[in-house]
């Protein structure tokens, strides 16, 4: 998995878990102690996030860091239609 | 777990796994495609590594990224003597 793919998959998983919890980007930013625009950048997969910031987001989503990352590494493409 | 604790635990786990494989810092740097001095900085817990660089190191140690991070998050202090 390339660096760019990891960043995109991480962003998608963060957004999916945020939706699961019914949180807005503002609420996730507040709980994680990060800026709302930063959350948006990460969800779009546009930045190579640090371990510590990723931990803050994971914990704000009630996940451990390794659980959030495992979602990305275990990702299997959907069967093409 | 504070950011500083995570950085230190990550560094210790990377060093422990490197020792397990009998690799030098130079060899780990070569396999991971990162600089040897960077490996040293990370092993000493002096830097907040990015997810992508941490993935490179994990894979060079024959681990998935989430396995390496889980070692840090599951860490329990040794019973004091």
TrEMBL record, chains A, B:
UniProt cross-references to PROSITE patterns, sorted A to Z: HTH_CROC1
Gene3D superfamilies in the cross-refs: lambda repressor-like DNA-binding domains (1.10.260.40)
Protein name in the entry: Helix-turn-helix domain-containing protein
CDD domains linked: HTH_XRE
SUPFAM superfamilies linked to this entry: lambda repressor-like DNA-binding domains (SSF47413)
Organism superkingdom: Bacteria
UniProt keyword terms in alphabetical order: DNA-binding, Transcription, Transcription regulation
HTH cro/C1-type domain: residues covered: 14-68
Keyword hit for Transcription regulation: yes
